[in-house]
Amino acid sequence: MTRYRATLAYDGTGYHGFQRQAAEHEPTVQGDVERALTRLGQPNITVTGSGRTDAGVHAIGQVIAFNAEWRHGLDDLQRALNATLPADIAMLELQEAAADFHPRYDAVSREYIYTIYNAPVRHPLKRMHALHVAEPLDVATMNAAAAMLVGQHDFAAFGSPTAGEVTVRRMLRAQVSAEPPIIRVELEASGFLYRMVRSIVGTLLAVGRGSLTPDEFRAVLESRDRSLAEAASPPQGLCLTRVSY
Q1: Partner residues linked to 171 by β-bridges
Q2: DSSP E strand stretches across 130-237
Q3: How many domains, the chain?
Q4: What is the pLDDT of residues 69-126, one digit of tens each?
Q5: Are 239 and 115 in contact (CB under 8 A)?
Q6: Within a 10 A sphere around the Cβ of 81, how many other Cβ atoms?
Q7: What domain range includes position 149?
Q8: Measuring CA to CA, which residue among 11, 54, 14, 9 is closest to residue 195?
Q9: Is residue 172 within 8 Å of 112, Cβ to Cβ?
C-alpha cells in the first residue's frame, strides 16, 4: 500500500462542498474522487483533504492524500484518474508521500483568493466565479482595513472553529488589490475558521462601500462578536489557491 499526495483543481459550482455528506445523493468532490478510484480497481479508499471547502467554493490548490495499491507508474495513475473524474475536477499533480503525511494537519498555511467583479453591469461569464458588485468600491480603504488582520488574533467575530473551541489564528498576509473591473481579496493564514474568509470579505465590502471605516473594522475584529460582522459573502467568488507545507 502506497501513500499518495495530489493537488486538485475543481469548479465547486455543482458540489455540496469538498467533504462527503451523510446524504449520498448530494455530490461532493471527495465522493467523486473516491468513486473514480473505485472505478480504477481501488475500492474502499478514503480521501483526506487539506480543507473542507463549502458548497459552491472552488479550488486550484486543494491537497489530498490517499492510500492505494497501484501497480503502474504515477503518470499512469494521474492520467487514469483524470480520464475518470468529472470534467469539473482535475488532478494537477500526483506524487508519492510519506506514510504518515496528512494534508490537513501537516499544513503550515493556506491561501484563499476571493474575486469581486466590480462593474455597473453584471457579466454572465463571471457569475459562477466572482461576486458582482455594481457600486464603486474604495480598494485602498479596503486594503488598509485588511492590513489590520495580519498577525495573531482571535477571529471569533468572523467565524467558528471547525473543531474544538479555539478561535485564535495567525494571519500571514491580507491584501486587497484591483485590476479593474476585478478586485481580489487575498488571505493567507495558519488556518481558517468556518466561513472566516467569506465573513471577512463581507465586512470588507462594507468598508469599500463607505458604511464602515477601517477603525470600525478593527473594532469588529477586536470585539470577537460574530453579530457585529457583516453577513458572509456568497461562495462563488472564493477559491482555495494554495496549501503550504
Answers
A1: 151, 189
A2: 131-133, 151-154, 168-179, 182-189
A3: 2
A4: 999 999 999 999 999 999 999 999 999 999 999 999 999 999 999 999 999 999 999 9
A5: yes
A6: 22
A7: 109-244
A8: 54
A9: no
